[in-house]
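User: Before I run my own analysis I want an independent prediction to cross-check against. Here's the chain; please return only the C-alpha cells and, at the end, one sentence I can use as a sanity check.
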Amino acid sequence: MGNGHGAFSALSAEERAAALVDVRTLARLESDAPADSTVWIGAGRIDRRPVLLALTDGHRRGGTIGIADAHRLAELTGAAATGAPAAIIVCWDTGGVRVEEGPVALAAASAVGVALARLSLTGTPLISVVSGPRGCFGAPSVMAALSQLVVMTEDARWGLTGPRLLRSGTEPVAEHAGLAATSAANRLKAGHTDVVVPDSPLAIREEIIAFLDRRGRRGNLLRAIDQSAVRLSALRKSIESERRRRTAPPSGRRRDLLRFSFRGHWRPAQPVLRRGLVHAAWGTLDGKPALGIIIGYEGARGAGVGIDEASAVVEMVRHAALASQDAPAPILTFLFCQGHAIDIAQERHGLQRALAECLRTMVAARLLGHPLLCVLGGGAYGAAYLAFAAPSHRVLAMKGTTVAPMAPKVLAAFRSLRGIREAPETPPDLAELIPEIRMVESVIRLPTALREELDGLLQSVQPAPRRARRSNRRSAPSQS
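Assistant: C-alpha cells:
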C-alpha cells in the first residue's frame, strides 16, 4: 500500500488512490487532464487483484463535477466495460454537479450514472467511499448508492440536498438538523451505508479487501428488480412515522396524458397505481402491452419526488418485467416534477438510495429489452432527471421544458449562499453528450410525432432473449 499515514480526506485524489492500492501498482489512465481537474482516474491492484479507481478531489472547486470531469469518469466506465476488473472503486469528495456549467454538466454526469448502473448489473462490483467534511451530495449521491459496498469515514456526510437547503414542510430547518440527517452516524443507523470507519487509508483498504474476499456471483436482472422493490418497501416503512401531508392536487379534471398523447392507441388496463405524484397504469398500445408512468401531475410542477414515488415506479416496472418476459413491453414515462423532495424526513430516511433503486431498475429493464421512452414537461432537474429520464432510449421534451442541475427554488437558495451565477439554457446539441439519447420539443402537442418516435424506437430496439420465469410471477402492486 502506498501511503497509510494521515487522514484519508486530507490527501489529494492521486494520493488517496496511491494509499489504497498495492505498492508500485498505481497507473494513471489519462495523461492530458488539466491542472484544475476535480476527477482523477487510474488502475492498480488491491491485495493483488486488479481494480479501477475514480476519485473526486474536494480540495479543487469543492470536488464538483463539470463536463470535462464527467467525460473523465466516462473513460473509466469505458475501460471497465472492455476489461475485467475485480471492482470499480469511486471515492467521493464532492458537492455535486457543477451548477455554473448548467444542463450540459447534468447530462454528462447522468450518462456516467447510467453506465455505472449498467456495469453493476452486468457483473462489475462497485465500491463507493465517501470521505471528509464535504462528503457526497447532489446527483453523485445517487451514483454512490448504486454500489454493492458503501464505506463512509466518521466525519463524512452523504445526501441529496445540502444541510443548509433542507426544509420541513415549507419552513427551513436548522443547519445542525441537516448535518445530523446526512451524517455518517445516521446513515449507519438507518442502514444506508455498510460500514463507518476512521478517516484512515488503512481502515478503508481493509474494508475493500474484505468485500473482495466475500463477494458472490451476480444475480440475474429480474432478481435485481425484485431486490430494488424489497429495499424500497423497507424505505417506505421507515419514513411512515414522519410522513407529512402532501400538497393537495388541483381541483378539476386531469388529462389522461397517455390517452391524449397517443390519440386512440392507448387503452388502460390493470394494475393501476396512484401514489404520491405517480399515476402509473399497465395497458395496451395498439393492442400490445405497455406500461405508462406519469410522475407529477401538470399542476404540481413545484413538487419533488420522494421515497413514495420511487417505490411506485419500481413496483410498476417490476410488474412490466414479469408480465412481458417473452416480448418486453415499452415503458413510457412522463416526467413533470421539477426535482427531488428537499424535506428533511426524506433526506434522513435515504432518498438518495430510493432514487438509486429507480435508476438501477430502469437500467435493468432496458437491459432486459424493454424500449424506454421519456417525455419531459415543464422542467427536469438534478437527480430526478438522472433516475427517471437518463436511462431511456429516447428523451423527448415539451416546448419550454428546461433541464438544470437543481430545481429553480433550490438553485436560488444555493446561489444566495454561494454567489453562483445563472446557469445557461439547454443547448441544442445536448444529445451529443448523452449517447443514445436525444431531446425533441413540442411532442405532446403533436401526438403523431410522439407516435412516430415510439415506432422508430420499437424498430431500433431488439428485445434481448429472455428465459421464461412464470413460476416467479408476483401479484399486482398494492393500490396504497
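Sanity check: Confidence is low (pLDDT under 50) at residues 245-252, 413-444, 467-480.
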